[in-house]
Design goal:
This protein has about 475 residues and is an all-alpha fold. The chain contains 21 helices and no strands. Helix 5 packs across helix 6 and helix 7 runs antiparallel to helix 8 (about 140-170).
Length: about 475
């Protein structure tokens, strides 16, 4: 079913204003989800002590959210296409908002982790539906600009989460990290209804591929769980059972890969697959998703390492650490805005390659500052330069993958891209965090090398010219 912008969404009296309001509503929805990935990092010590969460399990405050979020994204994308983006937006908002309230009211570790998992499930329904609503509403050059805002929210929200987490933890308390989602969730739900953010459609008479959904959820969830466990300190490793812990993590990865292979086999035979394999194999979606994986991994990994450097190594308070991330958040927004203006003219190949080179330089500056012992201000400049480049790279990833998506596959394509975003976040923290165990400076050096290699790959793999904005994908 095809939904047109003129007929279904924007009244003739003021289409420009309504489009802007709709974009603000969608950006707020995505901001809530991204903030909740990093917002707990600064608050973990205080939160764990109050809830009685064992030190070796504290990282699962992040993983409990990331695993269902990453695992359920493909299902959420398919439901947005079948049941309608408006319905899934409101359903995801309801679940996420109620779960946020439950997290803030938690009185035990078990309650807290269960509510965080429900938050992740709500996010998996909400995120692809919000991105699909954006794709339904904006076309041609307007889509590039809208995706630039989306990229700014995705990247800036990760850095802003550290700022907000620090300010709230050092102020009214860590519970307000989650309570603040309640009024925002209500505001976004009202915006969805009042501003007709998503079309009201009749659900399709199509079934959801339950076998594919189970395999996709379990496969993605296993991979994210393995990466998150590595990043957050798997309990068996913390207990000194290193060999058993490594074997367990390897088993998670192996199971995740096997389930993903089974998912592909099932989808090949399905008359109504969870996601069309031709969509995943298309050059635009494949290269855009790969760029999203790399850019998100580098960004979230760098933010994770730098937060640890400021708090654990330099002894900064949560509020001071949060404020240090303010220029980093501004840099991400600036990079996203610049890329949104340039990608339609120069194309994502050129903009993305240059953006990754800028990120490599910034990571190199931060690595040198930390290794040599220069003032933290220089390291902040390096990380901000990194954020500038990676903010632009995130926009290139989105426009490459989604620039030419058809309306009837907007949810599926959004689910695919968002799943690579979540895998990138988990992989970045796990991989760079493991390297940084030998020294934060070494971690930043490794990230700088990875960004430089990624710049060369982007030049080789991304199709030349401006991204397409209409039509089927070329296989």
């Amino acid at each position: 079913m095809t939904h047109t912008h003129a007929d279904r969404l924007a009244p003739a009296r003021s289409p420009g204003r309504l489009d802007t309001l709709a974009l603000v509503v969608l950006a707020l929805a995505q901001a809530m989800l991204v903030l909740d990935v990093t917002v707990v990092n600064v608050a973990l010590p205080v939160m764990s002590a109050e809830l009685g969460l064992a030190t070796e399990l504290a990282g699962w405050a992040v993983a409990a959210y990331a695993v269902p979020f990453g695992g359920l994204l493909l299902l959420g994308g398919r439901l947005a296409d079948v049941a309608g983006t408006r319905r899934m937006l409101l359903a995801g908002l309801l679940l996420f908002t109620i779960a946020s309230l439950a997290v803030g009211l938690a009185t035990s570790a078990e309650w807290f982790l269960a509510a965080r998992a429900l938050q992740g499930a709500g996010a998996a329904l909400l995120s692809p539906a919000a991105l699909a609503a954006l794709l339904h509403r904006f076309q041609a050059g307007a889509r590039h600009r809208a995706l630039a805002v989306w990229g700014a929210v995705g990247g800036g929200g990760a850095a802003l989460g550290v700022l907000l987490g620090g300010l709230l933890t050092g102020g009214p308390g860590w519970r307000w990290i989650f309570f603040v989602n309640v009024p925002i969730g209500i505001l976004v739900a009202a915006g969805v209804v009042v501003f007709a953010v998503a079309p009201r459609v009749t659900p399709r008479r199509e079934r959801v591929d339950l076998a594919g959904a189970l395999l996709a959820t379990a496969g993605l969830g296993s991979l994210v769980a393995a990466l998150s466990a590595t990043a957050t300190g798997e309990p068996l490793l913390s207990a000194g059972l290193a060999a058993v812990g490594i074997a367990l993590l390897a088993a998670f990865v192996a199971v995740g890969i096997a389930l993903r292979a089974a998912f592909v086999a099932v989808e090949r035979r399905s008359a109504q697959p969870l996601v069309r394999l031709g969509l995943i194999r298309s050059r635009s979606v494949a290269t855009g998703s790969l760029l999203m994986l790399v850019a998100t991994g580098l960004l979230v990994g760098a933010l994770f390492m730098f937060s640890f450097e400021l708090q654990a190594e330099s002894g900064w308070s949560p509020i001071a650490t949060g404020l240090a991330f303010l220029p980093i958040s501004v840099a991400i927004v600036a990079g996203s805005h610049t890329a949104g203006r340039l990608v339609g003219r120069l194309g994502p190949r050129i903009v993305g390659s240059v953006a990754l080179l800028v990120a490599a330089i910034g990571l190199g500056v931060a690595a040198t500052a930390i290794t040599v012992g220069w003032p933290e201000a220089i390291a902040i400049v390096g990380v901000a330069l990194t954020a500038l480049g990676l903010g632009a790279a995130l926009v290139c990833a989105s426009t490459t993958a989604l620039g030419g998506v058809e309306q009837d596959e907007a949810g599926a394509a959004s689910g695919v891209l968002n799943s690579f975003h979540e895998l990138g976040s988990a992989a970045g923290v796990a991989g760079l965090g493991a390297i940084a165990a030998a020294g934060i400076g070494i971690g930043f050096q490794a990230a700088a090398g990875a960004a430089a290699v990624a710049a060369l790959l982007a030049m080789a793999l991304i199709a030349p010219g401006a991204p397409r904005t209409t039509g089927r994908f070329v296989h």
